[in-house]
Design a protein that fits this description.
about 95% helix, single chain, about 0% strand, about 90 residues
Amino acid sequence: MNESLGLTAIASSGTNYSAIGIVAVIFVPICAAVAVVLWNYYRLQRHRADAVAMASYRKLAEEAVANMAEVRAEMAKLTEHVSAVEQLMRDVG
C-alpha cells in the first residue's frame, strides 16, 4: 500500500542537504535583516519617547525658573516692608 502512494520513493531518497543549505543561505540573512530593522525601529521609538520626556522636563525647569524670579521679587518687596516697619519701631521706641 505504501508503494502505491509513492511513500517508498520519498523515504528512500534521503535528506537533500543542498536544498536545506540553499534555504538557510536565503532565509537566515533575511530574518537577520528583519530583526535588525525591528530592533532599530524600536530603539528609535524609545529615543523619541525620551526626547518628548526631556522636552517636558525642560518646560518644567523653565517654569520653575520663572516662578523663582517671581518669588525673589515678592521677597524683595517683603524685605522693604519689614525694613520700613523696623525703622518705624526704632523711631517710636
